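Follow-up to my post from last week.
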Amino acid sequence: MIAILEIQDLHVSYRSSGGGLCPALTSVSFGLMPGEIMGVLGESGSGKSTLAGSLVRLLPANARITRGAVQFEETDLLRANADELRQIRGRRISLIFQEPSLALHPTMRVGEQVRQVLAAHDSLGKSALNEQTRQVFDQVFPEEADRISHSYPHQLSGGQRQRVLIAQAIACGPSVVIADEPTASLDPTTQMEILGVFRNLREKLGLAMIFITHNPALLCGFADRVLVLYAGKVAECGPAETVLASPRHPYTKALFHSIPTVFDRPGNTRKTKLPAILGDSARSSLPIQGCPFEPRCTERMDTCKEREPTRVNLSASHTVSCFKYES
Amino acid sequence: MKMQRALTRWLLALGALHGTVVCAGFFAPYDPAVQNRMYPYLPPMRVHLVDTQGHLHARPFVYQPKLRVGSFDQYEEDITDPRPVKFLPSGDYYRLLGFLSCRRHLFGAKNARIYLLGTDAYGRDQLSRLLFGGQVSLVAGLLGAGITLLIGMCIGAVAGYFGGWRDTLLMRLAELFMALPWLYLLFAIRAFLPLAVSPLKAFFLIIVVIGTVGWARPARLVRGVVLSAKERDFVRAARGFGATNGYLLRRHILPETSSVLLTQAAILIPQYVLAEMTLSFLGLGVPEPVPSWGNLLSSLQQYSVLISHWWMYLPAVAIVPFYLGYLGLASSLHERGAAYKIESRILGNLT
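User reply:
Got it. Predicted complex:
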């Protein structure tokens, strides 16, 4: 199968006010298959949102994409001109933002906001446009689609707002949806609901998704593949079952190890300390020599300090950047 | 709530002031161009209720003025000749709001002319000229401010939204315009144009000139608002869904500038009325016989008028309530905008 979105050797840096360049993403490569859900995992500052933004070139003004290519169908998105890009955004690739309360216009009815996405891409008549808007709403709000489409964002709950954003994202029938922590500000039950909406849509519309999150638990049973980012570099990438069940990279292992469990073993009343990864996440402004995870790694070796690990193929689809697996 | 009341109060006061000027034909007793060579530089007449014998009259009256014996410019009241004030009499024809032909005035005097604010060198009624002149001056201010805000909004939006070299270029240009001594610029522009132009042409000319000079400050303010608005998440989200620049500016960004523009309008309008007065005072604005506050004051250029006819200053006083009204409006608009900002910040944190 041919990847629908192919990211090759992507490098992104931020220009700091002092004039220096801080690398945010270095040499990120992966491919997204049609209809696949790719979970991107990483802590704050690991470059998750930068990745989401750079795919459709929606980065802050001080960001520079220094190298790489994002191949979508026939076009390289990083070299497309503004108009080509505009046509692709929303119609072929949609981006769902982190904060649903900020990503909706506060003084416009949400139905109108979805309608405007359709109007931006299709020159439909007024009635056809309204009809299509209604259909989109029906998909994400099986009940009371009408009432919600006439509400303002402040009248909706967080989950409902997130659904509106999803409606906007799928309005034009895109083949790729990039969701940047779409559930970060929602409570766990709503998170599950939203994941359900995504799963439904994937089945119905067959869209491929890049699902960015810092919560590995969300990816269980949801993502097909998982990509773990650390300090702007791909630490591990592989099928979800393999990576989530038996992580290989020390960072992924440590990350999963530090998920709190509500109930320990039955009968165990002794309070256990939550295992945490020692140290601070890498300061990306410092030039890093060697593996970026080396200072915090419990399995570090001498070579880790000297040079960067290269990607090791553990199997056809599972890669890890760690010296442990280099032979 | 209190703020809202203050805003309503200022709006009502300004509405009343403007209403008076708009309906100048009704409130003014005479046509502003009608001369009465009998009474040049007549001081304001007094309205009496009690006559010299001490009798109280139900209807107010004025005494017909007459020249003091042995003088040619000093008047006194002819106490043998009282003329009662009439309310809602028929008088000179005028067009109410520009199209309704009317001849009913608020007041007048039976078989006499009543000059509550005196007369000028040609015996024209100052009150009528003041009211009709207000129409010219205020329209000049309103239109001039409209032009300025339109230019300022466009330039500010382009500079803030597109940024880069356009921003640098436009903002340096704005700084240049802010540093220009606008009065002398107006002189220079006026000097380019023929000396004798029709009143209408001259009127539009000064509006355009006043309007195009002052765009720099609103443009900079709009730019600031646009800069912060375009970084909003919902603007980025809309861009992510394929919104065009035109759509983003129209629906998401320019509406945010409205409170800045309204406040600027309230500040600019009285300033521009004053600018019109300055230009007309210097003889560069609307020419005679069309009255405007500026050219009503231009007779003050003569020293004899300056020292002996105090009522010729009154047009200068007329701007004061307008200026105060607009500044009050500006400050309550500003407070209202600030309050909304605080409110939305708090709400934004909660949700």
